[in-house]
């Protein structure tokens, strides 16, 4: 493998990893603060991608589509939290698993009813629809670099909010002892709604900016959900830092795995997870 | 976990068994030409009931929520498919032990990794290991990829040259599955009432205290995990015999989710609940599929409603209607674990079936 090709794969792995982080951070936030395991998280990624596809078709502008899709995603998160999750906080994980599994069936089928079973794609939007020449026959998509930049910026914002703001203090405290936070007079109910909506918006947004890079297909949320579970298990549940490094690790492993050992590529991430579990059963950063 | 059922439960189970077992007698009269099709569905329900029951040992009795139970179901199916000779039926005398051994080895391997984790970690890791096998099977060349493997001949049960049971006959196979399910049920009832089962019950209620009492709880949980996996693999093998093929979908996590749904619908921790759940789930599925091509939306809504209004399942309604107290657990265990005498009774009864 020559250096330029290696470099391209490195960038691809990084880009994929950063995208995974956006999804996994929502998953880990929702679990860490609210104690809810949300299987429908992947379905929201899919909804994000389809929303942007639909709106781009209608409006003819990708950026406008994203601008409109984000509030829709937040609203959807709000509705789900208020309508269904509200009753589940005090109950066993089992019921959360089942209820969100039911949500997956509903959301996946709703997608089929609204957008059908076909595979769609969204073209790379201007002004990022160019490629940077690396060598004579290798080039790199500017849009991928843009996605990387956006993900990194969002990761920075999440880090800043959690580390350096009052809201961040409440979130961290809530992850440690929910009852105590409530006892201090903080409205945990509203906090939960906020966290869930933000988490859902993050994963839907990941689906939106990933839309020009992947094929938009039914069930696309299921596979990404499992990958993100692996990320969260490796990083440690509830840890944003863990989600970040776990996502980068898995992004790299999957990208290089499919190039170097194609026959075992789909297994690589699970083998890594098994290895981490052997050494640190609670994840690397928990 | 319940150690003795109210009389009405025994009565109900016997009545249901009688109705199902006599189906070949009255099926033709009621369903006419559809009878063969219904028999096939009933056989499948019996198999799925065994599958759901095997999960109950893990979820309802020990309190470990697994979202990767389809791993063992699919493993049973694939072991049968891959180990069967191409041009002649395999013998069940060695196929059944082989399936059980493969499942036990896999459950031991996975169990050693996941049993140390708890709660949400257990859910996620079992899910991930299930998907690992799913991807392995659907991408590797010798398992037929996403198409799966066809099984040309059902295994035979014979002594020497004389066939004991002709499993190719749908009626014989139906009774065979009924027999396996009944054996599985009696085995699990015996297991949960044994000393081993009482320790599992104790782990469910308070693992730390069981550890403090000197029980190697990880070991107990691991054995329960292996037993549960082996039973699921037997169900998977029967399902593959029924369908005539092994398919990656049998391994996928949607199958794990569905069996969990059967368990909740029926009522977990009761051993007999999952049987009712499997039947109820399959009947609902059958109705919804006839109603609309978009049946998953109806099934999804049913799951959501069941979780919200019927957390203890059908069995919960039968065993302890609102206002009726449940039978207590073994006195020695109550004394050791200390719930019941000291804790407030309502909380104990609530936790029993719910958690």
From TrEMBL, chain A:
Keywords: Amino-acid transport, Cell membrane, Membrane, Transmembrane, Transmembrane helix, Transport. GO terms for cellular component: plasma membrane. The chain crosses the membrane at residues 18-42, 62-85, 142-162, 190-211, 223-244, 256-279. GO terms for biological process: amino acid transport. It comes from the Bacteria. InterPro entries: ABC_transp_permease, BCAA_transport_permease. It is found in: Cell inner membrane. Its main location: membrane. Belongs to the binding-protein-dependent transport system permease family. LivHM subfamily. This is Benzoate transport, inner-membrane translocator. It comes from Halomonas beimenensis.
UniProtKB/TrEMBL annotation, chain B:
It is found in: Cell inner membrane. InterPro entries: ABC_transp_permease, LivM-like. It holds the Pfam family BPD_transp_2. Its main location: membrane. GO terms for molecular function: branched-chain amino acid transmembrane transporter activity. One of its GO terms (cellular component) is plasma membrane. Keywords: Cell membrane, Membrane, Transmembrane, Transmembrane helix. The chain crosses the membrane at residues 12-31, 43-72, 92-113, 120-137, 171-188, 219-240, 260-288, 295-319. It is a multi-pass membrane protein. PANTHER family: ABC TRANSPORTER ATP-BINDING PROTEIN, HIGH-AFFINITY BRANCHED-CHAIN AMINO ACID TRANSPORT SYSTEM PERMEASE. This is Branched-chain amino acid transport system permease protein LivM. The gene is livM2.
């Amino acid at each position: 493998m020559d250096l330029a090709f290696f470099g391209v794969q490195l960038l691809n792995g990084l880009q994929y990893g950063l995208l995974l982080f956006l999804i996994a951070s929502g998953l880990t936030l929702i679990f860490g603060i609210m104690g809810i395991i949300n299987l429908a998280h992947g379905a929201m990624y899919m909804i994000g991608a389809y929303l942007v596809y639909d709106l781009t078709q209608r409006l003819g502008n990708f950026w406008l589509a994203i601008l409109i899709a984000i509030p829709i995603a937040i609203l959807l998160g709000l509705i789900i939290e208020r309508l269904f999750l509200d009753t589940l906080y005090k109950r066993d994980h089992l019921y959360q698993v089942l209820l969100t599994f039911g949500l997956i069936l509903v959301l996946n089928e709703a997608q089929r009813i609204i957008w059908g079973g076909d595979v769609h794609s969204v073209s790379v939007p201007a002004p990022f629809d160019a490629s940077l020449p690396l060598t004579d026959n290798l080039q790199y998509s500017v849009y991928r670099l843009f996605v990387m930049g956006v993900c990194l910026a969002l990761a920075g914002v999440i880090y800043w909010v959690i580390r350096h703001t009052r809201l961040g203090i409440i979130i961290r405290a809530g992850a440690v002892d929910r009852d105590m936070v409530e006892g201090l007079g903080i409205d945990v109910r509203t906090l939960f709604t906020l966290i869930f909506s933000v988490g859902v918006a993050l994963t839907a947004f990941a689906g939106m900016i990933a839309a020009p890079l992947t094929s938009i297909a039914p069930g696309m949320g299921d596979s990404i959900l499992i990958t993100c579970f692996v990320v969260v298990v490796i990083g440690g549940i509830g840890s944003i830092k863990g989600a970040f490094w776990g996502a980068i690790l898995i992004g790299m492993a999957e990208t290089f795995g499919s190039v170097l050992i194609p026959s075992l590529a789909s297994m690589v991430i699970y083998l890594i997870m098994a290895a981490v579990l052997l050494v640190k059963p609670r994840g690397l950063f928990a | 976990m319940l150690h003795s059922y109210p009389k009405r439960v025994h009565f109900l189970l016997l009545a249901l068994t009688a109705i199902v077992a006599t189906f070949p007698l009255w099926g033709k009269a009621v369903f006419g030409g559809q009878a063969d099709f219904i028999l096939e569905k009933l056989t499948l329900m019996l198999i799925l009931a065994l599958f759901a029951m095997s999960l109950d040992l893990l979820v309802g009795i020990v309190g470990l929520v697994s979202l990767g139970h389809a791993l063992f179901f699919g493993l049973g199916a694939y072991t049968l498919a891959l180990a069967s000779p191409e041009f002649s039926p395999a013998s069940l005398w060695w196929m059944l032990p082989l399936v059980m051994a493969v499942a036990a080895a896999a459950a031991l391997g996975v169990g050693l990794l996941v049993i140390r984790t708890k709660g949400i970690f257990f859910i996620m890791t079992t899910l991930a290991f299930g998907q690992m096998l799913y991807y392995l099977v659907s991408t590797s060349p010798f398992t037929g990829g996403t198409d799966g493997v066809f099984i040309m001949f059902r295994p035979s049960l014979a002594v020497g040259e004389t066939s004991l049971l002709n499993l190719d006959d749908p009626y014989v196979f139906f009774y065979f599955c009924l027999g396996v399910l009944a054996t599985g049920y009696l085995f699990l009832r015996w297991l949960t009432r044994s000393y081993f089962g009482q320790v599992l019950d104790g782990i469910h209620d308070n693992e730390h205290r069981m550890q403090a009492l000197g029980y190697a709880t990880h070991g107990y949980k691991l054995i329960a995990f292996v037993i549960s996996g082996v039973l699921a693999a037997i169900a998977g093998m029967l399902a593959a015999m029924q369908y005539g093929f092994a398919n990656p979908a049998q391994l996928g996590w949607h199958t794990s989710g569905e069996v969990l749904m059967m368990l909740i619908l029926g009522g977990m921790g009761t051993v007999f609940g999952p049987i009712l759940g499997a039947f109820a789930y399959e009947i609902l599925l059958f109705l919804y599929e006839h109603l609309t091509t978009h049946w998953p939306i109806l099934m999804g809504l049913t799951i959501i409603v069941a979780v919200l209004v019927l957390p203890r399942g059908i069995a919960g309604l039968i065993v302890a209607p609102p206002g009726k107290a449940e039978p207590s657990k073994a006195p020695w265990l109550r004394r050791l674990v200390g719930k019941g005498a000291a804790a407030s009774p309502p909380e104990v009864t609530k936790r029993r079936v719910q958690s």
